Amino acid sequence: MVNEVYPNIFLNEIPLPKNPLKSINSYIVKSESRNLVIDTGFNTPECQNELMRGLEELNLDLKKTELLITHMHTDHSGLAHVLKGLGVPTVYFSKIDGEISNQTSQRDSFFKSLNRLLGFEGENPIKFGKEFGTKRTEPLEYNPLNEGNQLIIGDYCLEVVEIPGHTPGHIGLYEKKHKLFFGGDHILDEITPNITFWGFEQDILGTYFKSLEKVHEYEIAYLFTAHRKIISDHRRRISELLLHHEERLKEIGAILRDGRKTPVEMAASMHWDLSHKKWADFPSSQKWFASGEALSHLEHLVHTGVVERSIEGEVLLYGLK
């Protein structure tokens, strides 16, 4: 069922079966001459059926409907090519995430090499199940967006805001007049966005902190999140997220007092709010996400001069200076 969460703004909650995220909030901004869909769900029959059901319920003309993808993850971008094939004329993406999304062979090669660096032995955690959807093999044609670009939909002037961290090219939309913010996975209620490793040349966790501080300055009455509840007090939630990561960094420092660790060993030693209490029981995909998040925190400590990194064989090792 589609719910109107603000005048002419609708939330289409799309279930994500067998996924701890449970569902994704796809938003639809509607007007007489132009509509905008924000994020899609996985490339699965279940997600496609729910997405299309919502669009049909609102009687949208797809030829007057555009799609904006907040970031490259497949629960947000998985059905972009389907909508484009059904007549949606324009797909918007940030230039950075759009390029990463389309560079499938390079991305897969990066993940395979990262798999070894993390310290996984005898398993391949990047082989996700069917619940993550069918991978797109053809490049997606999209219009790149940058900071300050505007999309006018009816009474709403949606301004693009670059908020890297969850991904290198994550974007949001700010509507200043009505104090609305479409934030994708940048700020979530009840759960914390996964901040993973995106290369040694950048401190992606530090980048995420700066993006949080950037959004903290905006006047926002409703922050439309991609998962869980809409947020009415974004500054409170930002403070909670910053505290969460501060505690994570302290936890990692305490674990490293026992000696150097690979990212996988670090992740296995950390506390995670999952139903699986033992690391051995974690699904492969969750081991991957946890190790990537551990690595982003370790790299932040490297960039801030607290921890040193070394590579032995093909495996990363981190220890206190």
Automatic annotation (TrEMBL):
It holds the Pfam family Lactamase_B. SMART domains: Lactamase_B. Residues 23-227 form the Metallo-beta-lactamase domain. InterPro entries: Metallo-B-lactamas, RibonucZ/Hydroxyglut_hydro, Sec-metab_biosynth-thioest, WH-like_DNA-bd_sf. Keywords: Hydrolase. GO terms for molecular function: hydrolase activity. PANTHER family: ENDORIBONUCLEASE LACTB2 (PTHR23131), METALLO-BETA-LACTAMASE SUPERFAMILY POTEIN (PTHR23131:SF4). This is Zn-dependent hydrolase, glyoxylase. It comes from Desulfosporosinus meridiei (strain ATCC BAA-275 / DSM 13257 / KCTC 12902 / NCIMB 13706 / S10).
